Each structure stands twice: as C-alpha cells, then as structure tokens.
Amino acid sequence: MGQRGAIGSEPLSSAARWKMLVVLLATMFMSLVGVSIVNVVLPAIQHTLGATEADLQWVLSGYALTFGVVLVAAGRAGDVYGRGLIFLAGLVIFTGASILAGFAPDATSLNVARFIQGLGSGLLNPQVLGMIQQHFHGAERGRAYGALGTMVGVSVAIGPVLGGFLVEGLGEDFGWRSTFLVNVPIGLIAILLAIRWLPKPLFTRYQPQVEKPGTAQEPKKPAKQRADLDPVGCIMLGLAILALMIPFVVARDIPWTWWLLPVALFLLAGWILWEKNYKTRGREPMVDLQLFKIRSFTLGNMIAGFYFMGVSSVWVLVAVYVQQAQGLSPLEAGLVGLPAALASAWSSHVAGKHVVSLGRKLVIWGIISALLGLFSTMLVVELQAVGMVSIWWMLLTLSFIGLAQGAIISPNQALTLMDVPVANSGSAGGLMQTSQRIGTAVGLAVITAIYYATELITGAWHTAMTVGFVAITIMVVLTLIVAIIDHRKGHEFADVLGH
User: Fold this and answer.
1) I need a labelling partner for 288 at 20 to 30 A (CA). Which of 50, 156, 229, 362 fits?
2) What is the C-alpha to C-alpha distance for residues 83 and 9, in angstroms, rounded to an integer?
3) Distance (Å, rounded) from C-alpha 74 to C-alpha 425?
C-alpha cells in the first residue's frame, strides 16, 4: 500500500514509487561518482593547475565540509517545504557546480566549485532517505534501501577506474576536467525526470492523514500549519558541526584550529537547550530530540559513526600504499578496489531482500566480514613485504570488506530509520548522514596521521599500513559491540511485547 505523500496527493502506485526511485538512484550515482573519482585525479590537478598541497586538501575537504554542515538543516527543510523541492534544488546546484569545476581556470576557482558541489549534495542526500522512508514500507522499503546500496557499490567501483581511464586516455588536463563534466548529462537527465516523476506537488510538505473518529471513510484534511524551519536551531547546529569538523580536516596545515573543538561542544550544548526550549514554547524544533529516545535510531547512529570512522580510511590507505610503496598507476590503484566495490553492490542487493527478516543479525555478520577482510589484508601486506605473496592478493582480501559494506551501510540506514515517524524522516536521515560524515572526517584525520607518523618513524610502508589497519580494526570492533547491544536489546523489547 502507498502512503499519502503530501496534502491532497493520492497514494503512489507501485510503478510510480519505483520510477521515483530511479530518479533518486541516478542522482545518488552522480554525486557518489563525483566523490570517488576525485581521489585518483589529484596528481593531474596538481600538475595542470599548479595546485599546492593545501589546495588539493581543500579539493577534498571543501566538499566534505559544506556537505556535512547542511545535511540536518536540509533534511529539516525537506520536512517543512517539501522533499521534492529541496531535492530538485540540490540537484540543480550540484549539476551547475560540476560545470564550474570542469572549466575552473585555477585551484581557487576549483575549490569554490567544490564547496558549491558539497552544498548541492548536502541538500539532496537527506531527501533521498526521506522519500524512501515516506513512500516505501515493510519488505519493499528494505528492497529500496538494497537498491540504494547497490548503486553506492557500483558508483564507488566505477569512480576510481573511470577517473584513471579518463586521465590516461584524454591527458591530464582534459582528463581531470572530464571527471567533473561527466556529471552534467546525468544531472540534466535527472532534473527532467525529477520534474516528471517525483510525487506531486513538489512544493508541499508531508502531512499524515487523520481519519475521523469511529469511521474508516474520508480522512480529514489536516489543519494547515505555518512552516517552521527553526532558523536559529539550523544555524547553531551548522556552526557546531563546522567547528567540530574543521580541526580534523585542516589541522595538519592550521594547528590552531584544534581550539575550535571546545567551541563546537559549547555550540552543541547551546543547540540542545535551544531545541528543548523551542518545543516547550509550542514551536516545531529543527530536530525533535525525542528521536534519541528511539533505541534503534540512537544505536544505529553510533554504528554509523564508529563504522565510518574506521572503514572510510581503508580505501585512502590502500590507494596511497599501492601507488607510493608498490608503484602502481592511478588506473591500477582503482582496479585494486574494483572487486570489493562490486562485492558491495551484490551484497547490498541481497541484504535489501533480507534486512526486515534478519535485522541487526545482518549488520553483525557484515561487521565480522569486515574484520576478516582487515586481518587478511594485513597478512598479505606483511607477507608481500618479505616476498612471499603478490600484492594483488588484496583484490581477494578487500572483497570481504566490500561484502561488509553492502551488509552494513544500507541495512543500518533502514533499521535506524525504521521506527522514526515519517514526518521527521528528513531531519533524522540528515542526522544519520551527519554521523557518517563526522565519523569519516575524524577517522581520516586520526588514522592517516597514525599511518604517516608510523612511516616516518619506521621508514617502512608495510609497517605503516599494518598499524593503520590496526587502528581501523579497533573502530570496527567498537561497531560490533554496539550492534550486538542493539540486537540483544531488540530481543528484550520483543520479549516484553510478546508477553
């Protein structure tokens, strides 16, 4: 059964829901390829634009910062003004910024374009989760999240290989520019399909339909509510996230930014007080803090944060190691992660079919697969250092981490948002993605620092790789502990309900 998506709108048919999902997946594909493709073309950008190391850092960090800062506010804006409208705005901004990046005359212009790209991606991403949450239900929702996970795996697989292929085939200058311009035709098609296929009206917020007491006939029209974006709450949380992320992103070049961490905590505490007071006054807060009383939502956010804090660094360390220590080309470096990304796409598809029936068991088995991949990759690195095996054995060992990605990320999204009211799904989805982004920023900063410090002290790339993977393993073990707690708590609640 469909669910009413907005005031006065009819339930979506099955065909309409899946056509909508095609638009969402195409857009996510574009935005995710835009992230993964950049990692392998940084040297080409440096050579052709004369970019400094700091410039290259901002090519990655500028996108991550604006993306992370606007996520929750964008989710709330979708809840208030209509998810389709905010999605379309983000899609237009991202596509336009891709054009600016592709024709950037210098590093500064490129970084401005990347900031704008991050803004567009941050606007549209929470709407994807919100619309899936709103229009798909039960096992069908699990399949929709599985399709999303499959698209994530495919885009991650294609990105580095495509980037390496474009640079080698078209030359450094036109090659790296093409990695941004490739978004433009996809974006234009997605804009046209969004206007045609997204639920109408685009400009109306979600409103639950309330039936008349004692009858199952015509539902009452909900009272028209004044849009309340809670701008002060949006600004306070945005500044808190910005202050929290900046030190982990740029402190290597600007050490004084570590002083922003206590500022972030102060702003976060002030935001919590503001949100509580805002609701007490009868207004609609940016985030209903009652969400954190939902066990699956709170623990699911912890799982996302810990997991991304660890595993996001795997692909960075592997890319650096195989190129700097093993002398592989950017295209070969992309191929190293290809089987893992394809395994992620496959396991996402399978996980989507079983997430409702297996629940957190699926996530736990995924985490165990990640640990197997981490340990076996460390073994390959150490054995390769003494000439016993080829580095290409990593294609197999990293595939276990790929399988884990598909069994963890999308299923965790589905399980985390399962009990969240649909009216709050945009801001809730934004919060979950913010957990992922903060986890990624913190993990990359800490684990890459450990990696380079180990190499500097020991002079051995393989030792640095092993120590870095040990740090990642610690975060994955913490993820496993939280997932087991959530699984056991879920059974306790089920037992109580059963009685």
Assistant:
1) 362
2) 14
3) 11
Rounded Cα–Cα distance for residues 57 and 8 (Å): 48
Which class for 100: exposed (0-12), middle (13-18), buried (19 or more C-beta within 10 A)?
middle
Number of neighbours of residue 80 by Cβ within 10 angstroms: 22
CA distance 381 to 389: 9
Phi, psi for 296 (deg, rounded to 5):
-65, -35
Segment 161-206, tens digit of pLDDT: 788 888 888 888 888 999 999 889 999 999 999 988 887 765 555 5
Residue 435: how many other CB atoms lie within 10 Å: 23
CA distance 443 to 263: 20
**Full-model pTM:** 0.80
Q: Which residues contact 140 (CB under 8 A, 6 or more apart)?
A: 17
Tell me, what DSSP letter sits at residue 324? I
Q: What is the pLDDT of residues 304-322, one digit of tens each?
A: 999 999 988 888 888 888 8
Closest CA to 154 of 344, 337, 296, 289: 344
SS3 96: helix
Instruction: Determine the Cα–Cα distance for residues 469 and 314; give it in Å rounded to an integer.
Output: 7
Q: Could you tell me which residues are beta bridge partners of residue 220?
A: 210
For residues 186-207, b (16+ Cβ closer than 10 Å) or e, as one string?
Answer: bbeebbebbeebbbeebebbbb
Pairing outcome for strands 219-220 and 210-211:
antiparallel
pLDDT at site 6:
42
CB burial of residue 139 (10 Å; 0-12, 13-18, 19+): middle
Higher pLDDT: 380 or 76? It is 380
Token pair for 54: 């700091």
- DSSP-assigned letters across all residues of 169-204: HH-HHHHHHHHHHTHHHHHHHHHHHHHHHSPSPTT-
- Position 98 scores a pLDDT of 94
Q: Are 284 and 275 in contact (CB under 8 A)?
A: no
- For 305, the token pair is 């944060």
Cα atoms in the 13 Å half-sphere on the side-chain side of 138: 4
Cα–Cα distance measured from residue 237 to residue 214, given in angstroms and rounded to the nearest whole number: 43
To which H or E segment does residue 81 belong? helix 53-81
Asked whether 175 and 54 are in contact (CB, 8 A), the reply is no
The angle that helices 295-320 and 425-458 make with each other, rounded to 10 degrees, is 40
| CB-based contacts of 136-143 (< 8 A; 24+ apart in sequence) | 136/17, 136/21, 137/1, 137/3, 138/356, 139/353, 139/356, 140/17, 141/356, 141/414, 142/352, 142/353, 142/354, 142/355, 142/356, 142/411, 142/414, 143/352, 143/353
DSSP codes, 275-304: HHHHHHTT---SS-GGGGGSHHHHHHHHHH
Neighbours of 35 (CB within 10 A): 18
Q: How many H helices and E strands in the chain?
A: 17, 2
Three-class secondary structure of residue 356 per DSSP: helix
